[in-house]
Amino acid sequence: MLYWWTQIAAIPQKPGVYAWYYLPELTEFDLRDTVAKIQSFTDVNDKESASEVVKDFLYTFVFQYFREEPYQAVLRGSLKPKYEGSIEHIPELSEDLVTRIVEDPNRIFTIKQVLEKSVPNFSSPLYIGMSENLNSRVGRHKKLIEKYYSQAAIQNIQYQSLNETEDRDQSFAMRVVSRKIQTTRLAVAINVLEDVGKRYVDIENILNRIHYPLLGRN
User: How far apart, in whole angstroms, are the C-alpha atoms of residue 178 and residue 44?
Assistant: First the structure.
């Protein structure tokens, strides 16, 4: 069962697992503006600039929300110097994809149509969790996200370390806010697991190791 942001209060107060998803918004205005920019460059045979418009569009409206946080890497070897530092995730665009859109800009309208129907069947989860009371746990996520968006408006986000579960919830909420994810485009899929001896603990553990959710891993 899928619940969008405004429907979260309707999630049942039952045990189970849940997953958060995000659906980027592609507005008609942004699509038409992008098509016009692409065509203005192709009209003068400037395919390089048209390609940059496509790349900027895909990164700004889609890929930036799903960019992995940096890895901390260490390289060492016997009798070798040691190297360590941060490795950034660079979203890689297919040049063939860019070329196809440059040649036929209206393809981006099809991209919008498919993305609008992609949650949750064709989407990677942002976060996977479990709870004895799904309504309470997901509701806490919602309240924290709203809290941190309010604090972000005054640039005063405060993090209070509590217990392990609450630490995870706060971390997830802060990451949502830091990526400027639109709350109305967030959805939660749930799977109720009643009378099975808290086996949702096992399910959550397995799902996290299969799907590696972007904003929360356990």
Answer: 39
